[in-house]
Amino acid sequence: MAELMQRYIEKAENALLHTYNRYQVVLEKGDGVYLYDMEGKRYLDFAAGIAVFALGYGNQAYNDALKGQIDRLIHTSNYYYNAPAIEAAKKLKEVSGMDRVFFTNSGAEAVEGAIKAARKYAFLKDNSTDHEIIAMEHSFHGRTMGALSVTGTPKYREAFEPGIGNIRFAHMNDFDSVLACTNEKTCAIILETVQGEGGIYPAQKEFLEKIRALCDERDILLILDEIQCGMGRTGHMFAWQKYGVKPDIMTTAKALGCGVPVGAFLMTEKVGANSLKAGDHGTTYGGNPLACAAVCKVLDLFEKNHIIENVRSVSAYLEEKLDLLAAKYDCIQTRRGSGLMQGLAFSMPVGPVIEKALDAGLILINAGTNIIRFVPPLVIDRQNVDEMIAILDRCLS
Ligand SMILES: *Cc1c(COP(=O)(O)O)cnc(C)c1O
User: Fold this and answer.
1) 315 lines ligand 1 (CB under 6 A)
2) 110 alpha carbon – ligand 1 mean position (Å)
3) What separation in Å is there between the alpha carbon of 383 and the centre of ligand 1?
4) Cα torsion through 373, 96, 261, 26, rounded to 10
């Protein structure tokens, strides 16, 4: 069987574009918070396909909803209405308090749409096209050209310059640096409420509040990227709800469909009425019945299974256990994060630790070279935390 897996990996290396250095595992099936490879080896999953599979694997109600929709209708295009998209948009409005929803196929596309909406809003005010957007250092907003242009990691952008232009980068949690980037051309400020890929850095409440006030004062749009930190992960449906700072535009994806590729950007009525109009934006797949059936079921199950309550109770336990681990090992500098989005910052590259954990049956991912990221399915319990900590402890000692 090991040979079988090896043969698949060789085939992969002959066919797939080499944009990832993958772990040497072919995953085959999932059950709850566990994944299995082709050899039947079991892994405790603390990555959830990068903060995606919130409900855990093999949730029957979710699977049945998708199967039912497949037999009814998978795709219609946006020239027609379809019931799952209408239901999904209504539910998303309810849980977010936003007013208008546009469904996309990925997170990056949601960011693209958010940028377009902000630019259009500014364009309609003064008919000019030289508006600027402020983004944060160490941010991550996706790999398409617009999303990449507001991503604050120079090495991701370097070979692909020029980006969309007129972007300024400020420092997360440093309001003065935001102020220094602001001028009469600023049309939007975009940030992740909790930075994910950049190393798990939550925004500070005061920082967000000051940005909100600045945006209100100057009619600048606040775009909060909730693609990773949203959908219950911080113990609130969206992380900004914890701060009480509402964006003008927000993005979501990752756990929104729990594995079915779907994202969305949402906006307030003020932006909706004064930005993108018929003909300004579109997508063939976005908001199709299959993806939106997933969104509907995910939001139903979040409520029915008290997912957010579980995040709140189990994340306190996870924090406690991670803090103990950080105290035990000198190589761990600090823990930071919010809810079930946690990071341990090491004084060394964490790649070898993650490899060891994988061997020992634990799936972890990094967020930058020195940070282990914990973004498990939101249905984990304390026993899963204990099991994870025990394996990680063994790998570190
Ligand atoms: C993953 C991510 C994206 C990009 O989403 P894709 O679906 O990979 O395009 C954008 N922003 C944040 C904060 C993310 O974590």
Assistant:
1) no
2) 9
3) 30
4) 20
Cβ atoms of 177 and 171 within 8 Å: the answer is yes
Residue 361: Cβ within 10 Å count: 14
Atom of ligand 1 lying closest to residue 253 CA? 7
Q: Convert the pLDDT of each residue in 136-147 to its tens digit.
A: 999 999 999 999
For ligand 1, pick from 109, 139, 228 the residue to mutate: most ligand atoms within 8 Å of CB.
228
Query: What tokens does 19 get?
Result: 């944009």
Instruction: Enumerate helices (H) and strands (E) in the chain, giving the number of each.
Output: 15, 17
Mind listing the pLDDT tens digit for each residue in 189-237?
999 999 999 999 999 999 999 999 999 999 999 999 999 999 999 999 9
Answer for the pair 264, 251: CB distance below 8 angstroms, yes or no.
yes
CA of 107 to the centre of ligand 1 (A): 4
If DSSP states are collapsed to H, E and C, what string results for 175-201?
HHHHHHHCCCCEEEEEEECEECCCCCE
**Closest ligand 1 atom number to CA of residue 108:** 9
Contact 218, 255 (CB under 8 A): no
Decide whether any atom of ligand 1 lies within 6 Å of the 141 Cβ: yes
Quick check: pTM over 0.90?
A: yes
**Cα distance between residue 117 and residue 131, in whole Å:** 12
Cα angle 355, 153, 148; round to 5? 105
